[in-house]
Predict the 3D structure of the following.
Amino acid sequence: MTLSVVAESEVVTRLVGRHVGRKPGPKLLVTTLMHGNEPAGRDAASRVLARLSQGDVDLSGELVVLVGNTRASQSHVRFVDKDLNRQFTPERVDHLRRSSPSQRMESEDIDAWELLQVLDEELRPGEEGAYFLDLHTTSAPGIPFVLFGDTLRNRKWAESIPLTKILGLEEQLDGTLLEHIGSTGWVTLGCEGGQHDDPVAVDNLEAVLWLAMVGAGMIPEDAHDLGPSRRRLESARSGRPPIIEVRYRHPITPRDQFRMRPGFTSLDPVDTGTLLAMDVEGEIRARWDGWLLMPLYQGQGSDGFFLASQVKPFWLELSAVLRRLRLDTLLRILPGVSAHPDRPATLVVDTKVARIFPLEIFHLFGYRKLRSQGHVLLVSRRLHDLTPPW
Ligand SMILES: [Zn+2]
């Protein structure tokens, strides 16, 4: 059975479209417009849905495309009251599930509540897997990239997209939809396709969506001409490394009067000692050679910039082996590391004692930073790293 629905009107409806292939296969859920001023993802997905509706692409499984922030989308603003893509912490989700929408709720609480209702229906895995892709764009011009929680299953899917993959960026953000859906066992990727209203961002995100469907096994490699999509993204990557990891975050407060030096964009290469910014204390220089990442939402928040380093294939292979052998149980016997008394799969790290075990070691074993306060670091093992829960 083939069924295609493409919404014709401006963004008021949650469903952009759905296409069910002739054969069973995985389910791919795509969200667009989690930020209301980022229509490129919806436009890209609409093109893909229109192409699929012609019936000549042999799709297995089901593609569903949703709008995240319907209310902000109507006014073309990032959000109305607050960032929708920070509302999906376990605590907020529990709270929203116990609420019912009312006039007194903030706009994004209503959208988050509605989205959770839709997800209750949509988050049913396909016969051959469950994939979630979240499409975004950035306020500043920049090179497109992919980000994901570093599970081996996410990594494998990300390999199908020839853009730079950034590890450790998503754990700087709490309450993203990506994290929420990832925690239910879906394979997840986020993509920043380029600058908000640049038509190239739509082309990039369309290419990402086609290749993501190939990577998920929904489209055979040879069923559709994917060469241009691959070449587009390879050239958009502009020689950046395949995988980098965030190793440093420069935190800021208004009192710092932090000012980035003009001219930098995300994924710019920087050398040790490069002057990056100024604040009340003076100059801020790069501590090592690496790749600069600007905050995803510039001009607000507590992030000045991030520095990332290339991850060599050796480390990726080593971490895959460590995780497959489940050697993370050994972490608990290290000095300064103990199991969290209440939370499962969570470790409490006393960084005064465990100084030689920085976060990178825990990343290697598949852990994510939950919180860092004083000398206490809380890390938890990412769920469903190797196998889905069903
Ligand atoms: Zn966004």
